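S1.2 Input.
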Amino acid sequence: MIKKIINEQFNNIKINDNLTIAIGNFDGFHLGHAKIIDKLLEYKNDTSLAVLFFDPHPNSFFNNEYKVLSTSNDKISFFSKYDLDYLIITKFNLKFSSMKASFFISFLKSINVKRIICGEDFRYGHKGEGTTKDLSDNFIVEIVSYYNEDNKKVSSSMIKDLVNKSSLDLAKKLLNRPYFIGGIIVNGQKNGRTIGYRTANLDYQNYCLPQNGVYYTKTLYNNILYDSITNIGSNPTVSNNQNTIKVETHILDFDKEIYDEYIKVYFLQKIREETKFDSLDKLKEQLNKDKKTVLALKKEYKQWI
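S1.3 Output.
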């Protein structure tokens, strides 16, 4: 549980407690990130504990097309499982991006940071000029080694690559959960309801997506988890626009209007490639088969519920 969430411009952040702080982007919150937080928690009887990340992700600030594994709200959810005194979400803007490393160190001193927990590759300041060596001249610094899988460093980039290739089992292992995307339901073409397969059209923002295809998924709505079938792609049977990628989810045993509401879609297994069918009737036949496939797979994933 987080005692206080601070979501501010850096120059508006004021903390009087002595802090041990973990700093990073924490995109996806994988096992390497969890290792950093485990180290942070070792100091719970020494100082107040804090985590700091940046919003938006610095790479997203400079590139609107940059894909992420998790949003800031996702990260809040991840960190809420830990006993933290502060979660500090620092607004990343042009002024912050041009901040000298020495100024960032002064900022950390101003909020009473005494000890820093970070990964081996942590950089800060303008163009990443600041190093952990600079930090250790000013604070107690604990550098947490990489989490390795098959002698490879686990990183957000590595997991993005796995998600892009739909290597969902390994992504799940390294995230310690199935990969999910969340978003608001927006209006679609409403073709699915004409064949008995209504779909929720997800505004997936700038999430990293698995490759195009049809997936067995679980959909979380209003704290209830439903089996679902999710298509990622251009919907070629009913659309001529091959450049727009949609995420559309058919939730089994569900018949509610949920436009403008939020859902999470957890990707468990790819069941087939996206296909263009000659007619909606042919599409319905395939969806009936997909539903049988999902109901069979449900038994395999029962332990996850």
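S1.4 Remarks. The CA atoms of residues 150 and 275 lie 35 Å apart.
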